[in-house]
Design goal:
The chain has 305 residues and is mostly helical. It is 69% helix and 11% strand. It folds into two domains: 3-218, Alpha-lytic protease prodomain-like; 224-300, Cation efflux protein, cytoplasmic domain (Alpha-Beta Plaits). Strands 1-2-3 form a three-stranded mixed beta sheet. The chain crosses the membrane at residues 12-37, 76-99, 111-129, 166-185, 192-211.
Length: 305
């Protein structure tokens, strides 16, 4: 994990912890359904940041007999768990709480406390979101949208934190509108509606995050630019005439597996072929440093009969 990802996670962890505590206190004082939904969401987000840090720590372990390619996919696994936590503890709980209050409505007490806590939470969440956006800006290619970054990034931490922060910021405004509408219309069902809206939002975000992490867990190919660099590095060797195929797969954000088959000059000896493979691997790693595992199968040109 790079320093930018770690900084964004730590900022989100402390912001969410402070927000969760303040929201829960606010719920105890006001009885707001939106506040209890938001407090559970923030506690879940705090735990999620811990899971991302855990995944990053476990991913750096060296390969062993049972995991010869290392443990890089731990980062994808724990990010997938984050999506499940966001779906269950965040989304489903908020929907349940909203439906419960819709059926048994009661007015929110101490409106000033509820609004004050939500405003403070918005300020803290804005800081966390600003940090995430800033760190994404350091790694996102120029001209690429944030949505494209989330869809194409091979690193799970920054997209996860960014999605969580956007959902949290939006959820806070939904909670604020729900509390205000419930108070001024004297209809507490608006507060319940705010809780349900927060739940639906979190379920959608969890679904998007889960789909992206599932794709990475199953193994995604390298980017088109990296595949071209690897292919050119192999083709540029003077004694390799053609690349028959090249398959790539991300074992982790910074670890790429490359399996390729190429046509070598037919006059080469076994010793020459071995030397050329070593040279080609060196050139490919120079072109794409994340290509840590490279397997080149030599073939000979078949003459037409």
């Amino acid at each position: 994990m790079n320093e930018g990802s770690r900084k964004a996670i730590i900022a989100a962890f402390f912001a969410n912890l402070g927000i969760a505590i303040s929201k829960f206190v606010g719920f105890l004082l006001t009885g707001s359904a939106a506040l209890v939904a938001e407090s559970v969401h923030s506690f879940a987000d705090t735990g999620n940041q811990g899971l991302l840090l855990l995944g990053a720590k476990r991913a750096v372990r060296e390969g062993d007999e049972e995991h010869p390619f290392g443990h890089q996919r731990e980062r994808y696994f724990w990010a997938f768990i984050v999506a499940l936590v966001l779906f269950s503890m965040g989304g489903l709980f908020a929907i349940y709480e909203g439906i419960s209050k819709m059926r048994h409505p009661h007015e929110t007490e101490s409106l000033g406390i509820a609004i004050g806590i939500l405003v403070v939470a918005i300020m803290l969440e804005t800081y966390s979101l600003r940090t995430a956006v800033k760190e994404v800006g350091h790694v996102k290619p120029a001209g690429q949208s944030y949505w494209q970054f989330i869809r194409t990034s091979k690193s799970p931490e920054l997209p996860t934190v960014l999605l969580e922060d956007v959902a949290a910021e939006t959820g806070l405004f939904l909670a604020l509108f729900g509390v205000l509408l419930g108070h001024f219309t004297h209809n507490p069902r608006w507060d319940a509606a705010g809780s349900i809206a927060i739940g639906v939002l979190l379920v959608v975000v969890a679904f998007v995050l889960g789909v992206e992490m599932k794709a990475l867990l199953l193994g995604e190919t390298a980017s088109k630019a990296d595949r071209l660099l690897l292919s050119n590095a192999l083709r540029n060797h003077p004694q390799i005439s053609e690349v028959i195929y090249m398959h790539t797969e991300h074992l982790g954000p910074d670890t790429l597996l490359v399996a390729t088959k190429a046509i070598f000059e037919p006059s080469l000896s076994a010793e020459d072929v071995s030397r050329i493979i070593d040279e080609a691997e060196t050139a490919m790693r120079a072109a794409v440093p994340s290509a840590r595992f490279i397997f080149i199968e030599p073939d000979m040109q078949r003459l037409a009969r």
